[in-house]
Structures are given as C-alpha cells and as structure tokens.
C-alpha cells in the first residue's frame, strides 16, 4: 500500500516526487505482479496531531491544530488568501480504516487500478472549516475570535482545490456513507485539544504592553 499526495497536480518537488512513485506503483503492478494499492489521503485531522510553534513542537504548521489552538487561546485565526481554497478534510480514524482495508484487500488479491481516495462527499473551503471550528469553540464557552486574512505564501496557488473521490472506496469494501461527518469529527478533535491543554500543547503567554 502506498499513500499518495492529495495535491498531486501541483508543480512542487514534493508533489512531483510523490506522484512519480504513484506511477511506479502502477507500472510494477502491471508488469512485475506486485500487489500495491495506491491510497490518496487528503487533509487528515483528529486527536494527537502535533501543533507547531508557538503551541507545540511540530515542524510543520498543520491546519487543524493551528486553528483549534488559536481559537482556544483567544487568538485571531490566520488564513492565507482569504481561505477560499478547497481542501477536503478526512477523520484520522477513517484514514486508518481505509489503509487497513486496502492492505487486507491486496492480501486477498484485490488491487484496484484506480487510486483509492479518502475524503468527504461534499467539499468545503478552508475558511468555512475555520468558521466551523470557531463556532464549536464558542459553543463550549470560549470567546469568538476573528479570522485574519493573510497573503498567499510563496509557491501556493490562490483558490487551489484538493479534493478526493470517495466513490472509489467500495472497491476495497468501504462504504463512503460510513465516513465520519466533519461536524462530528471536529467536535471530537476540539474536545481532545481542550483535555490536553498544558500537556500536548500550550497557549502562549500574553504579551505585556510596555508603559512609560
């Protein structure tokens, strides 16, 4: 089983190299008799995802912990390019279930030619997901924080779309309707971050205003 990149169409070294391996998998399956299933995982989220500075020691700033930690800390949520990009969100438990199913199917001799794609039936913008997280934090008694729009970072494409087609999943025994809805998954994730504040992640100390 090989985990493919979500933004396989982007022209950056990471996406290009990952997509090259995806094609090698197709080649070896076709001509060497290997049994490797390509699984495309989009934006996975869930408990235990490491937050980057200033909240944690993560080396890469991941969307979900970044937004949740800022919302729980009373800090503005930062979105690049207005957050109009579409990037499918998928519950980490569903990712694990699909990966296990892909391995078990391959062991039984079922290796689909198509890439198995793990993602929701309906796509949402990054901004709408950020708003969902803020709303759920407010429902738990936290103050509403604003969303601050920042310029796109170098190398990123404004309005980019990273989608998955979950209708590929029945080929390995997964019903797309069984995937956890975003509302439920994000609720579980936020609850975990609330419970692990101070252990898994920390809120930065507020800056003191200098006085004359």
Mean pLDDT: 91
Termini separation comes to 63 Å
Extended strand count: 9
Going across the biggest sheet, name each strand in turn.
1-2-7
Low-pLDDT segments = 208-212
Question: Helical stretch count?
Answer: 5
| Percentage beta strand | 5-15%
Write down the overall geometry. globular
Helical percentage: 25-40%
Structural class category: alpha/beta
**Helix/strand order, N-terminal first:** EHEEHEEEHEHEEH
- Evaluate the radius of gyration: 19 Å
Largest sheet, described in full? 3 strands, parallel
Summarize the SSE layout with pairings:
Blueprint: E1 2-4, H1 13-32, E2 38-41, E3 43-45, H2 63-73, E4 77-80, E5 86-87, E6 89-91, H3 92-107, E7 116-118, H4 126-139, E8 147-150, E9 161-162, H5 182-195
Parallel strand pairs: 1-2, 2-7, 3-6, 4-8, 5-9
Helix pairs in contact: 2-4, 4-5
Summarize the structure.
The chain is α/β, with parallel strands linked by helices and 212 residues long. 35% of the residues lie in helices and 13% in strands. A 3-stranded parallel β-sheet has the order 1-2-7, sandwiched between helices. It has a two-stranded parallel ribbon with strand order 3-6. A two-stranded parallel ribbon has the order 4-8.
Can you offer a commentary on this structure?
It is a single chain. This protein has 212 residues and is an alpha/beta fold. It has helices spanning 13-32, 63-73, 92-107, 126-139, 182-195, and strands at residues 2-4, 38-41, 43-45, 77-80, 86-87, 89-91, 116-118, 147-150, 161-162. The chain has a three-stranded parallel sheet, sandwiched between helices. The chain has a two-stranded parallel sheet with strand order 3-6. Strands 4-8 form a two-stranded parallel sheet. Helix 2 (63-73) packs parallel to helix 4 (126-139) and helix 4 (126-139) packs across helix 5. The chain is globular, with a radius of gyration of 19 Å.
């Amino acid at each position: 089983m090989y985990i493919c990149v979500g933004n396989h169409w982007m022209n950056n070294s990471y996406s290009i190299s990952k997509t090259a391996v995806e094609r090698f998998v197709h080649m070896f399956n076709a001509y060497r008799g290997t049994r490797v299933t390509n699984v495309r995982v989009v934006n996975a989220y869930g408990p235990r995802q490491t937050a980057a500075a200033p909240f944690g020691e993560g080396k890469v700033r991941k969307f979900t912990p970044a937004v949740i930690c800022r919302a729980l800390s009373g800090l503005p949520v930062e979105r690049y390019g207005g957050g109009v990009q579409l990037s499918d969100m998928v519950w980490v438990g569903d990712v694990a279930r699909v990966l296990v199913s892909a391995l078990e199917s391959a062991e039984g001799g079922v290796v689909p030619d198509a890439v198995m794609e793990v993602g929701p039936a309906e796509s949402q913008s990054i901004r709408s997901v950020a708003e969902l997280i803020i709303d759920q934090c407010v429902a738990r008694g936290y103050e509403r924080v604003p969303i601050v729009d920042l310029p796109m970072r170098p190398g990123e494409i404004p309005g980019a779309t990273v989608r998955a087609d979950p209708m590929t999943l029945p080929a390995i025994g997964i019903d797309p309707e069984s995937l956890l809805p975003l509302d439920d998954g994000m609720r579980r994730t936020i609850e975990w971050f609330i419970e692990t504040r101070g252990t898994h992640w920390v809120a930065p100390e507020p800056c003191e205003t200098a006085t004359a």
